[in-house]
Every structure is written in structure tokens, then in C-alpha cells.
Amino acid sequence: MARVRVVDDPPTEGQRYLLAHGEKNAALGEDVRNMWRADAARVNLPGEDFWIFDSHIVAVCLFDDDDDLTGAELITGPAAVNQYNRLRDVARHYAVPYQKFAAGMAAKEA
Length: 110
What we know:
The chain is of the alpha+beta class and about 110 residues long. It is built from four helices and six strands; from the N terminus they run E-H-E-H-E-E-E-H-E-H. It has helices spanning about 15-25, 35-40, 80-95, 100-110, and strands at about 1-5, 30-35, 50-55, 55-65, 70-75, 95. The strands form two sheets. It has a three-stranded mixed β-sheet, sandwiched between helices. The longest helix is centred in the last third of the chain and has 17 residues, at about 80-95. The model has no long low-confidence stretch (mean pLDDT about 90).
């Protein structure tokens, strides 16, 4: 399992919570990477949150005005799924492994 988290500067309370648990996920073998939102914008990543399952199904997360998850839109069309797979590859290329991101964040806050 792998994921890329886009983080605001400064991180929101929810993002700090997820970052605090990133070490546990990484210790269990998950490839957790992070990138700043400004960096994601520079490489033209979308602002939406999505999950890819077996490179064939995309779930685009839907949130309400309070940023609570309310559901997901499933995408299965091959052309659209391929576009999300490309976005995943771009995100993974530019994102920083959890340990390095957390160390940089700690140094920035010191």
C-alpha cells in the first residue's frame, strides 16, 4: 500500500494528526509520502482527494463544507482511470518519504 498526502503550510489540525500516525503506517510497510500543497500545485496535481484500487477503479472523495467525508464518486472508465494513474505517478515522484518530510517539518518549526 502506498499513499501521498498533500499538506498545507502550516498543516491543519487534521493533517498534523495524520502526520503523527505516518510513522506507524511506515513501520507497517506502507510507503507514506508527503508534499506541500504549493509543490503539488507546481506540478499540476488536482486539489481533489482520490484513491486508486488495483489501478482499475478510482474513488474520488466527496467532502462537505466542514471538510467531512460524505461519500465517493467511483470512476471506472479506462481513459479517466489512466489519467488518475498518471497523477498518482507524478505525486509519488515529487513527494518526499514520510521520515524525511517529518524531519524537515520539525527543523522548520524549530
